[in-house]
Amino acid sequence: MIPVMTREDIHDATETFARYGVPSDRIFDEIMRARYLDYVLFLNPTNQQYGISIEDLYNNMKETADKLGMYEGDADTYVRVYTLALRVDPMVFAPDISPLGDEMKALVAYGEERAAESGKTVLFSGAESYLPYAARLWDHLSDKRLAFVVKSPVWKKRLQLLFPRCRFLLTGELAEDEVRYDYIFHWGESGEEEKQLLPLLSEEGQMNWVVPYESFTRSSGPMEGVRNDILQSGRLSGYYDLAVGEREYAFLGFEKKADLVFIGNMGFTDGKCSFKNQMKISDSSFKEADEWNYDVYAYNAVPALQAILAGNILQMEHPLGEEFQSVEKEILPAGRHVILTPSALTDSEIRTEELRAAVWDEEKEGVLLKGGDLALALYKGEIHFFPVSEGEEYVAGEGVFGLRSSGFYSPWYLKLFLDGPVGRLFLETMRNGEDYAFTLSRLLRIPLPVSDREKMDEISRTARESVSRLAEAEKGWRLVKRSSVGMMMGHPAL
Hints:
4-stranded antiparallel beta sheet; single chain; alpha/beta
């Protein structure tokens, strides 16, 4: 079994390799060599039975020098290098590989679980997006005929050396692949692979795709043909909206023959993928609708929203994104900044005691929220909105976002709508258990009431004054609680 390596394990292994004459920038090459030699040498039944000598191993190492460079140490030391290289997780030492976030780990682990329950042939596509997990897949699915799809010829060669019992394909080679897979997991970014994957699924096979929502639902482009193929296949069993980091994805499930298509939110609970179905629709009805806008299904699953939209009280043709845009990152100067944290945002104020001061020694990228912006954050399972006052500036902390009006619609108007009963109905369609499958892209698609400037000004003034009174009342209540507890404890001055 390949170990899960801690930072201490990685540090110790790096130092040990160095003692054996392998600098840090050569470790990955030696791991590739060791795994390749282990596979090739022990294909020989005699070696399997009797093992190999130190000299045989050393001589075979020399034969790989044209591909992987020459190890300069002696034969006895190379045995130690070889043994250590087989014991570590190879991807920990791979070049230009970033650690996986918890959400991506959960997604690939879900694919691993499904693959373990499937038949013998398994394909993982878009593997470069989750390479740190490759060794675990190879290890845990060793009883499968495992294949990976990568875009880079360099990584195809590297991975073939590391995992010689697996098959590795480039995207352009999928069309010639004759294997039919019992399970396919696909992380897609470009739209090139999806059209090739459906024909590769065996008759009894299952498949999961994770594809960017925006590109998947675009009205034209390569995904248009892919969507048509999905409808014709009759194998779509699930269509879920998913947030990974700050980006929105579509998570698709495919089965042998799907009579029903389940539609809902997908998220992560306790480090694992979780699903909340919002509605189900027959395969024939889904095919007849030919509708890929996820919001249409989410809103129609709520009778009150269905009535509002059917009565043209609100129109999806006038989304929030028509009047507001997300505040994007920019390069901010060095110096003192005030960081707006999620805990500082409440429904009635931005609590100054929860703001955080920071002094930057150099310029950094960040989101600068200014007067007139609407700050928002998901905190402790709830979404809070509050306008930034004129003359104030905050750098958005992690988990804080901003919306900026592109016309005369005010942040107070938007706050009042989203905090109100109708806005909350729309927000609740994003809920996944105790949390939200929240992305700004989905928020910006919520239908927004049409208003004129006069109505806008009146509503904004009323909202501002009412929230100000609420903030004062809450502040007074906090003071009363503090002083009262002080009196109870014998400290009236508190």
